[in-house]
Amino acid sequence: MPDLAEMELYCAEAREILARAEGTLDRLRRKGACEGHRMMANQGLTALRHLSRIIERHRNRLAFEALPNAVSPPAPQKRVWRPFLRQRATDEGRFVGTGA
Q1: Residue 9 maps to a domain
Q2: Which residues touch 97 (CB under 8 Å, ≥6 apart)?
Q3: Engineering a disulfide at 33: which of 15, 37, 49, 73 sits with its beta carbon 3.0 to 4.6 angstroms away?
Q4: In the prediction, which pLDDT does 46 show?
Q5: Residues whose CB falls within 8 Å of the CB of residue 21, separated by 6 or more in sequence, listed in order
Q6: Alpha-carbon gap, residue 27 to 95, rounded angstroms
Q7: Has residue 19 been placed in a domain?
């Protein structure tokens, strides 16, 4: 398990690799590369961004665990999706979708 200082180096390296990949994709766009090449470069960039987020989360967790008297971080709030069943109908004056 890497320590926090080592994770900082990994994060810096990930940011550098990500910046180079973004520059490469930008050059491909400016020079008029074909759509297939741009799509492949964009997929690679998306994967690198995902890996960078994983590394950052791991670094944040290590940094949090290194704090004295650290308590567990608050759980993220659960997302609630509620359809808009109670939108008023403009012409009838009753609720739509409620079965009334």
Answers
A1: yes
A2: 83, 85, 86, 87
A3: 37
A4: 94
A5: 41, 44, 45, 48
A6: 54
A7: yes
